[in-house]
Design goal:
Shape: elongated
Helix content: 40-55%
Mean pLDDT: 75
Strand order of the largest sheet: 1-3-4-2-7
Low-confidence stretches: 8-102, 531-538, 680-687, 929-960
Number of helices: 30
Number of strands: 20
Distance between the termini: 23 Å
Largest sheet: 5 strands, mixed
Radius of gyration: 36 Å
Amino acid sequence: MYRRVNVSEPYEECLEDMDDRDSIYLDTISVASEAINRRSLTLSRQTIYHSAEDLYEENGALNEEDELDAPVVSPRLNSVAKYSDVPGKNDEVSALLIKQKQTITYSQWKARTWRRFQDGERSVDFVLSYVGDDPNPGNAEKREAFETNLMNEGLELEVEQNQRIHFVKIHAPREVLCRFCEILKMRMPIKKIEGSEDIIQEEFHLLDEMKSFFGKPFEFVKLDPTLFPERNNELRAEFSREKSYLFDTERPDFFSPDVRIAVVNFILERQRFGTDKEANVGIEKLLSDGVYTNAYPLHDGDLKTPDSQRHLLLNEWASVKHWIKHQPLDHIRDYFGARIALYFAWLGFYTHMLIPAAIVGLLCFLYGLVTLFSNQISEDICRAGKSIIMCPQCDAKCDYWYLSETCVYSRVAHLIDNNVTVFFACFMSIWAVVYLELWKRHSAKIIHRWGLTGFCHQAEHARPQYLARLQSAKKKKFNVVTQTLEPSVPFWKKKFPMYFVSFSVIFLFIFLAVAAVFGVIIYRMSTTTTRNLYGNTDSMSYKIMVTPVTAALLNLVVITIMNYIYDYLAVFLTDLEYRRTQTEYDESLTLKIYMFQFVNYYSSIFYIAFLKGKFVGYPAKYNRIFKLRQEECSPGGCLMELCIQLVIIMVGKQALNAVMEMAVPFLKKTYNTIRNKFVQNSEEDDGEKLICCSQWTEDYKLLAWSSRGLFDDYLEMIIQYGFITIFVVAFPLAPLFALINNIFEMRLDAKKFLKYYRRPVPKRVKDIGVWYNIMNILVRIAVVSSAFIIAFSSNFIPRLVYMLSVNPDKTDVGYLNHTLAYFNTSDFQDGIAPVQTNFVNVSMCRYQEYRNPPWADRPYKRPLIYWHILAARLAFLVVFQNVVGFVQMLVAWAVPDEPRHLRDRIKREEYLTREIIIEQERLKSAGAKTPAAIVPNGGVKGEEGGDVRHRPRRNSTEST
């Protein structure tokens, strides 16, 4: 086994082990035949590295094709040169240097040193870092035990101790990769079979032909095939060392970087250290205890390395100027793993699906704009409203007002509440379910291409934290998928109490979120009685606009503060639960946080949509809360105020998140860079001075990738999805704003991951997890919400009833007057009528309600037309939900989860793989000396030349 190498060993001890890579670094300082003292060779290799960087960047002496042996010495080499005059035995050193002197380019030097061990051959698959002058001796013992156990697993380690931060470089050899790929049940590509690209014969598909024909004008959105060549479908099979004849493990790129990283991370998470205590397991525990400062895989180059995948993705994918281009999903998957790649695949698909929704919403808005001055309700408010005196909006301090003061408000409200509102609601409800069904089909193709078909949560290994908590458990159960014994958790003794405590606290905080919203509602009610803000000289437009805007801003601040508090609490509670796998843990945490976020973001909007103005009462008898009058909707309805609330919370939240997502990582990375660059005396400073000379030191300055790295990004998009489905009736432009946001969100997220964060550990997933189920529930809620908003918050149903059963002309002329009831000012209760008024002799005022006039037999009681309208509203709810629900079910039934040709391909691939295994096992059992050969007609020719039909066409190798 490869020994643990310390690269800071004295030169005298390592002289005999010096390899070509050492000579390359020594060549960097342009050592001539002049004698150099041996002490110069014991200097930090980092100084030598950095000198090469100086030659390349500062002096401009080295271009990509320049040679490193150019006689240019950086000013930073004075520390080396000052030993040149010291006498000593240096003749043999000079001879060695001259003998090993080479001519290499900077690219060659960097390729051998930047991400590799000292030998320049083995790659660094993972890096651990710790503080070299750690005063705690216990930490050193834990590190020693942990690293010894890692080497016992077969990993190869190399320790670099030439600056304050020490680095442990980890390499996984082929034997370890084979062993753990089998343990992890990874599906790896099998050897290429002739004709495997044409497993399923191409058939004529009308839809594909139409897409090809109509897609020709949009060729410019496709990726450059020279930069991102199209991948061929590969046959994959679950890796097994017993079936090594299926896999070409000797191929240098067989174990891709994401596989190597995943294997090393799996070992690190489950490796023990120190004593046999339950908690002494895994790298996460060592990081939390401060034994190691960081653990991370490496990027494949810095931002300036032109031939690195990181540089390519940063310039061709993460750049905003390429916003219209498709995403290189296969390359993203190779670099970040399936979990992150699937997030970007989903975000890209969701963004594309927003295009038709945004177009229809924009058309609906333009229709309202075109018919702005032909709306009868607005015209009546602006003209006839000059003679209509409305009742006061608050007790005592508010005056009467003219209806015409809401002229502008009513015209703007027409932009969202017009004749096409119902059509748009139906369209968005159907769009939502079509989007989900098409995503399932799209994701099925992606998952199959990435070799994750059939991957399930039971195939995941248990979390090390879960196993550590149950180490002393006596009862075991057999996992039929992983074929291992795992500890069994008693449900009533351990699981149920933790679940009960966890969700009890969750519902408590949900109640607090509702209470916070209720506080904002009380604020809205109280502002109507504040004389300083709403005196007699203020217009009604000011009153109607200022209160919703200030309340929405206040609500946004409350939402943000409570999010931070609850987020920490949700993680703490989920840690208490017994969640076996990381997927179960993530889904439990996701459900908790989303339940709270749903209430936190949507409760104030639900109040405006369904409660505000519905139970106000009438001037003679107002319904009060804490002796405060409830808010009333304007004569144009509450839909406009709902729109204002949506714009501020949705657009404001997205803008704030976009700024924070980019600004915070940039500032943190800049701070780390400045601190590491300008700290002059690291011994007197607690900072961590680093000389940037390798990929591990470059990545050390980046931000650590959290296990919840994608959670906030998913949450932001799902909250947005709720806005554009549940409340889109009140804001037709919501899909357009979401589309614009997502275009930039996609590229900014990519830039953030590539530029400011360390490379994440690749994770295998088969879907986007619980987020799909949440969206599916939101679709059902959206149908009900749209129906209620149209029925109770819009003028659609009352206006339709008026036109069909009240007005003989079947028009909406006179509808406004029909919706306003009369009130005799002499019927005001004590303290309700205005104390000071600018109006003279007001005997009657109007208010928005369906009630009998004061001169009727039953004054202020509900008239018959009110019950007709209520019946029509309830009937609309039933019809809308059933019709839209039926269409949604029809769409879900008509669109299969997997395309037919994909199902056929999966079956054919399974058949081919099975046949290869059967044939090879037959040859093994028969003691065959030569493998089967592939005959041209597709059969397999055995040793005697016999033709075995129905065998895949491939050259199989003798099993090992």
